[in-house]
Amino acid sequence: MLFTANGYKLAIVLKSGTSQESVTEKEAMILSQFQTVGRDLFTRGLVSSHSGNLSIRLGERIIITRRGCQLGCLDEHDLIETGISKNDRNTPLASIELPVHRAIYQATPALAIIHAHPPHAVALSLTETEIVPNDAEGLAIVSRVPVVGWHMKVKLGGMVNIVAQALKQSRIVMVHGHGSFAIGQLLEEAHNCTTTLEESCQVTCLLKSLRVTSATK
Description:
By secondary structure, the protein is of the alpha+beta class. It has one domain (about 1-215): Class II aldolase/adducin N-terminal domain (L-fuculose-1-phosphate Aldolase, 3-Layer(aba) Sandwich). The chain is built from 6 helices and 10 strands, in the order ββαβββαβαβαβαββα. β3 and β4 (about 60-65) form a beta hairpin. α1 packs parallel to α6, α2 (about 100-105) runs parallel beside α5 (about 160-165) and α3 (about 120-125) packs across α6 (about 185-215).
């Protein structure tokens, strides 16, 4: 399978005997998955125009969104393939959060990762060390969500090992005042965790607002 990114041709090694037609189908399927998830994250307001990143693992390779791309309108040029542990000429094109994605893949059995900036979840990450959903769906899907990075300088691509270790115990974690990292065997699973967390945080924020309103009456 080939992706083209800023003049580079990115090859995914396929088993011998694989037809060019099936290569094209797999390429289209992967691109479609990235586009569907990226568009939905943007439409829901879980990423801004040029924020957030997605990746999947294929053996010892990773396909990750391009640095500075728009998740809401991805094309084949926005998918960058590079190594899980080794740099190559494509590495500089990858998302700035590549080191975090690499560490997560090396520490967990995840095959897909989504990094987003869900606003209600980010707000709660500034006041809580752990986010515990109040709604049944949130408790069932994401359970308790750790907030890492308290009393630390949070920067893009930082806290690599802390995030990776936290995801050994949870399907999604929040970085204090920054955003979420969710894992799954499919992008769809990580997407489900991300959207569920944000909906749960909306419910929590509404409850806090109701309590304040009731107390002032």
